[in-house]
Amino acid sequence: MAADSWRIVLVTPGRKITSELLPVVSQEIPTAQVIELQGYPLDGKLGDVGQAGGSLCFLDLITSEEQGLKALIRILEVNPSLPVISLVPDSNPQLILQALRVGAKDFLTQPFTNDQFRTVMEKLSQVVPELAAEQGRVVTVVPAKGGCGASTLAFNLAMQLKRSGSNRTLLADLDPVTGTQAFQMKLKPGFSFLDILSQGTSLDADVWRGVVQTYSGIDVLLSPHNPVEGAQEVGDTRPIIDFSRRMYDFIVADLGSAYGEWSLSAVRFSDEVFVVTTNELPALQAAQRVINYYENNSISRQRIRLVINRFNRDVGLTKEMIETALQSDIFQLINSDYEDVQRALLDGKPIQATSTIGKQIHQITERLLGHDVDHRKKKSEKARSGGGLSGLFGIFSRST
User: Fold this and answer.
1) What is the rounded average pLDDT for all residues in the chain?
2) Within this chain, do residues 246 and 273 fall inside the same structural domain, yes or no?
């Protein structure tokens, strides 16, 4: 069940417990609907909240143990399938035991923390499957070298995912030096991912919505307007990626470079990594270096998707030669079409879906969404020798 369809009822007679717990809930389940019920419902009725699937109750036993336990008994009599989490003081194991015996599924102790909340939710999802939050899928797009068109692909991939059925899509420009997504979409630079990182543990859905911008139905997290000094030391992308997984179905992350700790952290936390190159020899050599760099940093080749952009059969290597030289299957060929791409860039719009390139990017989204049931990756081992390619292998081996 997607987190945005959860309904959480918080039962407490005062605002103190609400003010302590609500920030944690907002950070961990940012799109859930939270309903505050002030006072103890001694008749056990929580309205239609308790009857709906995907509902969860947090019950305050801190303000009043006696009234809280009575309410717990009645709530579970009226709503026997409703998971109830008791909120208890840190040093009251007897109260915890009483609540569990009555029927509470688990408990949170003061002070409420994100780690504690996450542990409880993970335990609950194992016994109440409908509470297992669907995590968004992260696709990171990296260039083998500058000028391969990775940012253009990231933009158009996010737009195609939205058109193809990804209801909640985020395009995250995580390039701290040369981010171009604001320029491509003609968005006015404002807040950036640095504002997200600065929030630390106080990040919640309201802050997030104040930072991202909207473009044609997708959310966009922009890069800083000015290049960041010491870009690779800016921090770790995990807070951004972890939070966005709970907000979106798909996250497309645009990186300006494959190298450095900032970029590596994004790749490590991604489900799939699109390495974008052209079929010219220098770009392919750069792609080989990127793949080796990732493998040396414990990133599985199985997660790497090789995309050949601006493919031109008359210039550079053929598909078969590339796959043999890099010992990697090509995930997608995208043809060279300077006119369509430049027209889209000048207009600040995605590439026409009916164009050749638009259709090829659509093929990528069909695979990501699981619609392309006929697509099967090749599993045969690529040949390591061949007369016409011996010089090419020599070049790659000397440069890696």
Assistant:
1) 85
2) yes
